[in-house]
Amino acid sequence: MTKEITDILIVGGGVIGSAIAYHLARAGRSVLVLDQADVATSPAASWASAGGVRRQGRDPAEAALARAAIARWPALEDELEADLHYRQGGQLLVAETDAEADQLAGFVAQQHAMGFDDVRLVRGPALRDLTPGLAPHVLAASWSPADGQADPPRTTRAFAAAARRLGASYWAHTRCEALLTAGNRVTGARTSRGEVAAEQVVLATGAWSDELAGPIGLDLPIRTAAYQMLRSTPAAPGLLGPVVSAIGRHLSLKQLADGAFLLGGGWPGDPTPDRRGYILRESSVAGGWAAACAIVPAVGAQRVAESWCGLEAECFDGVPLIGPAPGWRGLTLALGFCGHGFAIAPAVGQAVASLLGSASPPELDLLRPARMASFDPAAVARFRQPTSSSPAA
Predict the structure, then answer these.
(1) CA angle, 58 as apex, 56 and 63 as ends, to 5°?
(2) Which tens digit of pLDDT belongs to each residue from 204-260?
(3) What domains are defined for the chain?
(4) pTM for this entry
(5) SS3 of residue 84 by DSSP
(6) Separation CA 360–CA 323 (nearest Å)
(7) How far apart are CA 153 and CA 82, in angstroms?
């Protein structure tokens, strides 16, 4: 069988892998993307994401990427020539008690320290003007007007289509069976369609990344999480403009164009033993629904129409691994996004493409995989143990 040759091989065609492919193809690089299924299909994270496009609440290590991404989103539909169902309706993080409202004042100060200067604390009539449908007991909120929402599968497929228009190749339904190495360099991959030789390989396979990294001795500090989503029956459109979260609850709530409410917030399901599927937890379905009804009572007039999970890689320190793989030349990691990679995908794509072009983008400085050397192995081992029934923060 003839060996395929490319400049860059990207393993994983989700929103991160496809955003990287688009930016590389735009720079004139030869790119081949492998995906074990079709782009943005179950149970991949890019198919199941809640679709929030937010800055506030980010880890400081992600702040630079969040600033860059939020600046890109308003024009991204024109750039990708696709309808992403993007809406810049803002985001509210609400407080239900005086103590939580006091916490929000400090939270807003933290957002300003990260450069999100337009985030502000709102109360009383100003809060009700933003979202009249909030429950009466909600006292205050941190308001981030530049945030919003978009459709993750549409966005992922738009990045992939734009990459193809610029010359990138996609091999769907193609398993990456192993990374190929020579000395301390990754030289390509063995796939179900044959071998691929590449100058650079990008590992963007999310929850399944350890299956390829482990055999070459690269021990990734990640675990697989199943994040639950709920979709309600359609309510009257226009009841909820911003994305709504709560400081004291696990909640990410938005209303879609057809009126349905979409609920996330980190409520867990369980990956199947082979990590190719998921099992819903009834306690998570009930808990997520109750959280939404408590904050926006109009949700309670509907019922759960659909429920599902997506599989994501959680990194030990809660932020992704983006950059050169320790100990290996020719291998770049872009994984471990912990359920909040969708919003920053445009900036991640640009930064990784710059990195592979020999630049050193500063927005990746605090996310480089070299930091893995400082992790306590015993703590990482405990982190990898099966998760409890509590939702992720």
Answers:
(1) 100
(2) 999 999 999 999 999 999 999 999 999 999 999 999 999 999 999 999 999 999 999
(3) 4-56+152-222+316-383 (3.50.50.60), 86-147+224-313 (3.30.9.10)
(4) 0.96
(5) coil
(6) 10
(7) 12
